[in-house]
Amino acid sequence: MLRRRLNRLLGRVENRVESRTIYVGHRSSSTNEAIIPPKFCDNRIVSSKYTVWNFLPKNLFEQFRRIANFYFLIIFLVQVIVDTPTSPVTSGLPLFFVITVTAIKQGYEDWLRHKADNEVNKFPVTVLEEGRRIQKESEKIKVGDVVEVKEDETFPCDLILLQSSRVDETCFVTTASLDGESNHKTHYTVPDTEEDLETLNATIECEQPQPDLYKFVGIMNINRHDQESAARSLGPENLLLKGATLKNTQKICGVAIYTGMETKMALNYQGKSQKRSAVEKSINAFLLVYLCILVSKALVCTTLKYVWQNKPGQDEPWYNEKTQREKDTNLYLKMFTDFLSFMVLFNFIIPVSMYVTVEMQKFLGSFFITWDKDFFDPEIKEGALVNTSDLNEELGQVEYVFTDKTGTLTQNNMEFIECCIDGFQYKYPDASSELDGFCVTDGPVNKVQEKAGREKEELFLRALCLCHTVQVKESTEPGQGQEDGLMDQVDGEVLHPPREQRGFIASSPDEVALVKGAMRFGFTFLGLESKNMKILTRNNDIETYELLHVLNFDPVRRRMSVIVRSNSGDTLLFCKGADSSIFPRVKQEEVERIRMNVERNATEGYRTLCVACKYLSAEDYAQADAGLREARLALQDREAKLMAVYNQVETGMSLIGATAVEDRLQEEAAETMEALQGAGIKVWVLTGDKMETAKSTCYACRLFQRSTELLELTVRTLEDGGRKREERLHELLLEYHRKAVQDAPSIKAGVTRTWSSANQDYGFIIDGATLSMVLNASSESNSSSYKNLFLQICQNCTSVLCCRMAPLQKAQIVKMVKNSKGSPITLSIGDGANDVSMILEAHVGIGIKGKEGRQAVRNSDYAIPKLKHLKKLLLAHGHLYYVRIAHLVQYFFYKNLCFILPQFLYQFFCGYSQQPLYDAAYLTMYNICFTSMPILAYSLLEQHICIEVLLDNATLYREIAKNGMLQWRPFLYWTLLGVFHGLLFFFGVRYLFSNPALQDNGQVFGNWSYGTIVFTVLVFTVTLKLALDTRHWTWINHFVIWGSLLFYVFFSFFWGGIIWPFLKQQRLYFVFANMLSSVSAWLVIILLILLSLLPEILLVVFRKPRGPHARQKKPVQSNVGGHQSPRSSARPLLMRTFSDESNTVI
User: Annotation-wise, does 689 bind a ligand?
Assistant: First the structure.
């Protein structure tokens, strides 16, 4: 592993062999031949970032890569090396505080990763060695070890299945942690292996580790005494992946072939790229502005100092003659030293503590999402999950939402609705649904229908019972059968299963729905035993079919088949799949009878499958059997050869019917989509489903309205013109661009035509094949042109539907929009492993805790139980997070400008001598203690608008769009406010000092009294300014605001009231107490605070509550059904509970 990493780092080409040889149980194939064990990596999994030894240097290096931290380190070193006017403690202590807090946070997070790694690496496993079962830690497994795994245990590494406790030599696994699919998959042992693994002498030759979960090619050579070695082909059906879980099988034994970081799970781990929020980018831009201000101030003061000293008598007055060393110093070196001293003196204009406050605000603020009771789902007994707290404010800036369909917009809970046999529709009563305003039922369904004919009906139902990979799990627990739907009551009669209660296990929820649908019509699948499938007919006869071959489903063929032999000796092929896959392979006269029902069901939003069959003669079967066996033993191009045999067998079939399965909409899916569109967010649906089903779902979710004109760019529309596809594509893109972009009236930024009834709304539909043509056009110029046209059309449509999408295409769509003009903020939401790529690609990724495993949840930034929770997550939490942190950033720059501007002005009155205006204790404590807690509490608890109002008025979300509160205009306002307050503080106190006698005894105040009065006015003003901005008061706000002011007063008395032995000079000894003995000082402090805040007070008094700057109470609906305007009932709420973010007024 180390060599491989070094080669990759140095850019060398690594010479790796194409395959690896593994000795099963570390036994040589020949007794005379000694084994030289190949070197493979161990089975340790490492996801942590630090170790005990490298934590300190590595963490410090990473932290000082941040510009602000590095800047303050330089300032600190300058203070240590150069004779500066302030102590190194003033910069060193805040920097140490920031570095320490961040290091503790990152160290804790890495400790959790170490803990998770240890749980995996130290997990006890059973290894078979020399006929004994030995307990080992998982990390000590080596390639070639024979490992035993029991039911419900997770496979510790990638294994080849050698032995199973099941009679049929299979086992069942769930791969939810790998590909998100929670359904059971069947895996098979290697044929002809020894029952006693201790005597098994075999070698495995297989490909080197690669990340594709569904591809594996290998061969196993089994050596027997006095016989030629037998070669057995190995494929994905023999491979058990690390992270998968054994189900419905007591135990299995397998040989380890890939371990540790070479397992497919580890190779598929895609570390999350560092996502940066728009707020962080704004902070960096503002930081550069203030850095320029800092350098300008230092240059001005340095220049004016030497201009002033050039005047006669100013450079070397009689009372302060230069030493010989000072006279010998180089002028330019002295100027540079003075410049550095001024930089140190003014460096507090850059708020280093802002970074740690922002970190704390994000970290603590994320708990409000986790604690929100509205996000708790009683069904799964879980709430929301925050994986990344760095993007809280991005939730308030989303412009595009990319959503999956199955499991996200819909429940992924399949229910058999109806079937069509030979053109006749069949429904059972308890699944009746309204179609076009009337109810369709077909009477008792467990009796002969006499529609398509008994023979056709039974053939269709047998196909549903046999063409699948469903397994029956026996259970001794009473009542489990009822939960699984095996005791359904149809027409008052109960269909009794066999003696034991059984549950269904399948790789797809569609298959279970179809098997249960056949049960409702009287045909029950009893299970698979030793390659024999048993079904119970509606005449209560048990029929047995020998399962000869399974032609597995794959997304390219989009169909699956089984070849079975009945008791009478007939060989049948049953096939089911998508209509586009089945129709070309059946007799065309049969298609028209079924096509109408399939299209109607798709339009109604149902998932449709067509069912076909074929009787195979002895010659046909012998040819198919030989072809399948030969293809499965091929080491090269195995998949292509299998595909060729599949296509050859699955031709000339008879179409017997079609099924309709419903995947119901998620709870409140339509209301959520409507609210997002009302907030100005554009919703794109990216799905792998067929267009008709997805389009129906979009109508049901109100993404498409009846008035919406749909612009369709699919394979079907490309073939309509009768010309080449690329020519037709170009023509349609230009036509749609003219409609949606050129002929559309201009609109204001941030307002889409969705909200204007005067303009035509457009919806856009594209499929995966056409998208590939757009993104991968024949020439580079065409590709760029097509992309731009496509993007402009989509951006001017209210909603976009992308169907038949591959996972990679979903990510490409997100990336294309993310990198488009204006860099809009994107959000992807999905529930399955096929959504992970787009979740990782978007600015914000959200996982749904659905039925397709938890891979989407683990790779997401936020996870919620249901789609309906997205509304509150964005419109309430996102809105509030953004407003809070935007105010925090602007306020930090403002209060530091107020702090340092008087220091700059003071230099004009002290001969540019770098004399500090404030004491070192005040310089150090200002950002750490005196002003940090109020803004932190504000940024966690502020609710400028009630949550109910935010949810009821989605348009409020638009008012903060495009990073509105962190643009240059509000930044300029806060900067000018800081300049105004700084000027007022300094010159107000200077006006007071124009009267020399400020005390009763005639004693005058000194420069430290001057600075202390300015600092007192400063601390009270910036704190009370925040109090005026607060709309939502809690006891915590009261405690930190008034507590901070009291702490400042207490600290000033305490610091100046004691002689501290560790200080060489004590500048503030009794200064604060002496200052407060003067009535004039009291008067000027109160007067300056009032004058500073007067414009703000007047603004609050005379400004009408409007927009997001007013707290609004939830509007009350009148008795007559009218709805009161929220603005008419707006009023500030001063006190609310802290226990939750509800809107209870105290």
Answer: yes
